[in-house]
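Example 3.2
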Amino acid sequence: MEAVAKLSDYPTSPRKARLVADLIRGKKVSYALGILSFQPQHASPVIKKVLLSAVANWQQKNEDQKIEDAELVVKSIFVDGGRMIKRLRPAPQGRAYRVRKRSHHLTIVVDSANTASAV
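Structure, written as tokens:
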């Protein structure tokens, strides 16, 4: 049985977060946590925290199973664009440049390797 964890409107551009998300897609949770611990990108600790939340949600749904026996896998992870804050920056000759401060939504789905392969 799968479990989901979501994060909304985190102030990092989606493109930067997708670079980290692509590293852990389809990997075992223990391996993914090891990858995220040593990545220098700004989005790594945030994705790690959401992944741990997804594992806790899975454990809440499946109280009769142990996490070690389940062999949890990152079934899917996706980063969507969130709201964009628009600001103006002064430019030469009285002009203004538009600055778009981007944010993203993060969704992680975790499932047991036993049920993921059966489907």
